[in-house]
Design brief:
This protein has 404 residues and is of the alpha+beta class. It contains 15 helices and 13 strands.
């Protein structure tokens, strides 16, 4: 191990004995008591020295015996330490492609904030390269979203859509103006390739869903261009995903409202069927309205504010990445909505509905991982915020399976 105090967090002394790592409530923490000699020793923890060399430096600085090991252990327990050589073979391979890693460096630094074990950040970044994601819908939202995922290091991003690129599909980061008239799916795939820092070698599909024989995806994102499908996702369309236990995320723009979620973990969290049942409970006219909306084919260009579409694409991609990285983002069990012009984000909780065939309601709230509540032998750690705790329920990346 070559310990490195996470450079992502700004460091500052709150007083003579207390160091604060980080600035923002979500990720900052304080560590103390710490003397000045130990404090200056922190500068040596920059990933260039192994433990043996660090112990030697410690002796040279007259730090007591065992102090360096205790410090490194304490920092690691506090989640403040990274390992410049850790992360496993996939991480080693990523380190060898310097230009790729350089482009992903801010993403790597960000991952270091949400991982606790040294080496995990680059391990997760490397794991993204073996993930397969499908984006269904290549309009202003879908094409940008797919490009973002590829740009953030997801190895395989497939895009599905029909028809040809219309002038109003064009969006910065998505389908370019010169693609107008080309096949939508092919143009979106080209955009994805342009956004990818490199193209990892194609690998054999890891999973195959028994129903259709197609290779399985870690996640499918439904980003329809049709606004009715955004507002009221059709449970029938998601049935194969439910049957194969494929996690899927909804995102899109309907009229002046951007929607991200729900992230459906089949059998665990509320799905499109739950949403439909819930709406019918609340509004007796809902089935009548939805039948009219679905049958009345709109030929006009639908409203889709460019900045709102880009916002939705960005937030949905962030939720997708959080899931792919092994977390459960807040869109599991909720739809995030934002409307122009006030642009307040709000979460509309989506409970699993007892009448829905997905059976998520029976399964209750699913597993809840316990927090790391252990105390530390030498240093007290204080995290100002508990906000990010829910997202910290860690799974190994890409390992989610439905228990259906
Ligand atoms: Zn359901």
């Amino acid at each position: 191990m070559h310990p490195m105090v996470k450079p992502a967090l700004r460091r500052g002394w709150r007083d003579l004995k207390t160091v604060q790592f980080g600035m923002t409530p979500a990720h900052a923490m304080t560590l103390g008591p710490m003397d000045l000699a130990t404090g200056s020793f922190l500068d040596l923890l920059n990933g260039t020295r192994g433990l043996e060399l660090l112990r030697e430096e410690g002796r040279r600085m007259d730090l007591p015996d065992g102090h360096v090991d205790r410090l490194v252990r304490g920092l690691a327990r506090a989640g403040l330490l990274d390992d410049s050589r850790g992360g496993g073979p996939a991480a080693d391979a990523l380190r060898k492609t310097k230009e790729v890693l350089d482009r992903l460096r801010p993403d790597l630094a960000s991952l270091s904030l949400t991982t606790s074990t040294p080496g995990d950040a680059i391990g997760q970044l490397a794991a993204r390269r073996s993930q397969r994601v499908q984006v269904r819908g290549a309009g202003r939202v879908g094409a940008v979203l797919a490009s973002l995922l590829a740009g953030a290091g997801v190895g395989e991003v497939d895009v599905l859509d029909g028809g040809r690129v219309e002038p109003w599909d064009v969006a910065p980061g998505g389908l370019p103006p010169e693609s107008v008239g080309d096949r939508r799916d092919e143009s979106a795939r080209r955009a994805v390739r342009r956004a990818a820092p490199d193209r990892p070698p194609r690998r054999a599909p890891a999973q195959t869903s028994p129903e259709d024989g197609e290779p399985g995806f870690s996640l499918v994102i439904l980003a329809p261009r049709d606004d009715v499908a955004v507002h009221a996702p059709d449970p029938a369309a998601a049935e194969p995903l439910m049957t194969s236990g494929t996690p899927h995320l909804y995102a899109g723009v309907v009229e002046g409202t951007g929607v991200v979620g729900p992230l459906v973990l089949p059998g665990e969290t509320g799905c499109a069927g739950c949403l439909q049942e819930d709406r019918a409970d609340r509004d007796p006219a809902w089935p009548r309205l939805i039948a009219q909306w679905r049958s009345g084919r709109q030929r006009q260009v639908r409203p889709c504010d460019l900045t709102l579409a880009t916002t939705v694409a960005g937030l949905a991609a962030a939720h997708a990445l959080a899931f792919l990285d092994g977390r459960v983002p807040s869109s599991a069990g909720a739809r995030w909505e934002v409307s122009v012009p006030a642009l307040h984000w709000q979460a509309r909780p989506l409970q699993a509905h007892p009448a829905c065939s997905c059976a998520a309601a029976e399964r209750g709230k699913g597993e809840h991982l316990s927090e790391d509540g252990e105390s530390h032998e030498t240093m007290a750690v204080q995290r100002p915020s508990e906000q990010c705790r829910e997202a910290e329920a860690e799974r190994p990346a890409g390992t989610w399976r439905a228990h259906v």
